[in-house]
Amino acid sequence: MGLYYNRIVVKVGTSTLTNEIGQNNLKAFDCIARVLSDIQNMGYEVILVSSGAIAVGINKLRTKPRPTSMRIKQAAAAVGQCSIMYLYDKFFSDYDKTVAQILLNAEDMENEEKKENLINTFNTLLEMGIIPIVNENDSVSYTEIQSEDKLFGDNDTLSAVVSVLCKAKSLVIFSDIDGFYDSDPRLHPDAKLIERISAIDEKVLPLAGGAGSRRGTGGMKTKLQAAKLAMSQGIDTIITNGKNPAALYKIVKGDNVGTIFIGKNIE
Question: Cα–Cα distance between 77 and 247 in angstroms, integer?
Fold first, then answer.
């Protein structure tokens, strides 16, 4: 079976869900819920991959300064996962939508029985009109928090893995900048947005730079890794600014938004 052309995976990061002082951005939660609900009403199947559990947990625990030890981060993730799902459930309910939580570890992808069960769960939820919300299980897994060489690395890679698992046609990664540039626009005012990339090669890779927002774990390098994985399976990947979730309306219409990485033709 090929890709589901009406199936979209959307990834939002910590920088989208929190404001400049690190507090929960309730307007962003509401806007994401409203747009994804409306997109689903247009006939699309939507999966949300969400970061932010640790940051939301730290806000709930009022831990200052930001914890550095693994055990405190994992505790914050456990608390934050409850809080973040409460917020999603609240805001999606305002638009008459039901959400479900799926927490994944790398091992879930490596075990064929677990992988098959996951596929069945995703498909059943989507058939029922439920919006799955996915995160890595940070309270028992350290890969997103610490490791530099891992399957997921952060939720950019996780979103690509979920896209492949669910055979989505499109992956939309919301970043803290407008797309992929020929240099870092935060450092170089004359940086130019690259609107379309058909191959991630030695010309593109060096443009990714280093780490991303101080509030998140993923920079453009991890987004390129995610796009490369998705592209190899025929999935189009769009990187655009998370401050404007309404850009999804243009994306589903096929308009140019941010940077699109064209999926390989595997038909």
Answer: 29
Give the bridge partners for 7, in sequence order: 45
Say if CB 266 and CB 200 are below 8 A apart: no
Segment 216-235 mean pLDDT: 84
The whole-angstrom separation of Cα 142 and Cα 152 is: 10
pLDDT digits 0-9 by tens, 147-160: 444 445 568 999 99
> For residue 48, is pLDDT > 50?
yes
Distance CA 84, CA 53 (A): 6
**CA pair distance 239, 223, nearest whole angstrom:** 8
User: Rounded to the nearest 5 degrees, what angle is found at the Cα of 161, between the Cα atoms of 155 and 162?
Assistant: 85
CB–CB of 15/216 below 8 Å? yes
Cis peptide before 65 (omega within 30 of 0): yes
* 8-state DSSP, 18: B
Closest CA to 80 of 151, 145, 126, 163: 145
Per 3-state DSSP, the chain is made up of helix, strand and coil in percentages (nearest 5) of 40, 20, 40
Question: Starting at the edge strand that comes first in sequence, how are the strands of the sheet with 196-197 ordered?
Answer: 99-104, 131-136, 45-50, 4-12, 168-175, 236-241, 259-261, 196-197
How deeply is 107 buried, as exposed, middle or buried, from its count of CB atoms within 10 A (0-12, 13-18, 19+)? exposed
Q: How many CB atoms lie within 10 A of CB 176?
A: 19
DSSP symbol at 236: E
Residue type, 204: V
Answer whether 122's CB lies under 8 Å from 163's CB.
no
